[in-house]
Amino acid sequence: MATERFEDIVADFEFLEDWEDRYRYVIDQGKALDPLPEALRVPATKVDGCASQVWLHPVIENGVFRFEGDSDAMIVRGLIAVLRALYNGLPVAEVGRVDAPAELARLGLNDHLSAQRSNGLRAMIERIRLVAAEAV
After folding, report:
1. What is the pLDDT of residues 21-50, one digit of tens each?
2. How far apart are CA 44 and CA 24, in angstroms?
3. Are 94 and 1 contacting, i.e. CB atoms less than 8 angstroms apart?
4. Half-sphere exposure (CA, 13 Å, Cβ side) for 121?
5. Which of 25, 44, 47, 128 could link 54 by a cystine bridge, Cβ 3.0 to 4.6 Å?
6. Long-range contacts: 127-130, Cβ < 8 Å, 24+?
7. Strand, helix or coil at 104?
8. What DSSP string runs through 65-100?
């Protein structure tokens, strides 16, 4: 179960054969994100377990989940953009049903992220799932 925007990313990754190009693509996705306002960079939105500074600000309106996020590392900003493509716009009840590791495996991210980045990605996914579960 993936959003149309995430399917677009999967298609783009299939077109890009070289991992260096894919890495740049993820970074470019992060560069396109609007920065998270300083007022939202607070302990409550900070994600523990990430090597870099990461903030996620979830918003649930009319039963629809979305989140904004930011990081001080460009690759992590890109990973936030990928997660936004995976989750934003889903009914909040469906967020927990997304098999994020399987969806992200379609991009080959598991094979190309450092252990620290993989741990941080898992921490972001856990935060997203927790917020959605609490809202249901």
Report:
1. 999 999 999 999 999 999 999 999 999 988
2. 30
3. yes
4. 23
5. 47
6. 127/47, 127/56, 128/56, 128/58, 128/67, 128/83, 128/87, 128/95, 129/95, 129/96
7. helix
8. EEEEEEESSHHHHHHHHHHHHHHTTSBHHHHTT--H
The residues near 105 (Cβ < 8 Å, ≥ 6 apart) are none
Residues 6+ apart with CB under 8 A from 10: 2, 106, 107
- Residue 43 one-letter amino acid: P
> According to the model, what pLDDT value does residue 17 have?
84
Q: Give the C-alpha separation, 43 to 60, whole Å.
A: 20
CATH class for the region spanning 4-135: alpha beta
**Which of 2, 47, 50, 113 is labelled catalytic?**
50
Structural domain spans, the chain: 4-135
**Residue 108 is among the residues annotated as catalytic for this protein:** no
